[in-house]
Amino acid sequence: MGVFDFLKKDVVEKVKVPALAASVVINSKTYPINNMAANSFTATGAAGLGQGTSFKMKVAFKDSKENIAFICDGQVAAIIGKDAKINFVNLDEARRLKVAGFLTRYLRSR
Fold first, then answer.
1. Which residues are 61's β-sheet partners?
2. What is the pLDDT, as a whole number, of residue 2?
3. Of 22, 60, 81, 85, which residue is the least packed, with the fewest Cβ within 10 Å?
4. What is the model's pTM?
5. pLDDT digit string (tens) for 44-63?
6. What is the pLDDT of residue 15?
7. How far apart are alpha carbons 86 and 79 in whole angstroms?
8. 70: left (phi over 0), alpha (psi -120 to 50) or beta
9. Which domains does the chain have, with CATH numbers?
């Protein structure tokens, strides 16, 4: 073994990542959110809603800093396998900023 053989090893630092959760309730059924953007998200298992469907929904985001929950309008933009891409419809600026803040914290922790 050479003097610098330790440089050939990969070192992985284990860092505790804060728990984050996001879900949406549509027609009394809860779907986990698995992909999120500022104006839309992908709900797992929501393909049965059908493309173009509009509805009221309760969105909830939870992380170590705050819990956000609000009711807003949504519309299914696309069906991707068993998932549905849902757009926020007429989301006011205050709620849009809360979504953006949660998304920013999520991206920083990954």
1. 22, 68
2. 62
3. 81
4. 0.77
5. 999 999 999 999 999 998 88
6. 62
7. 9
8. beta
9. 21-109 (2.40.10.220)
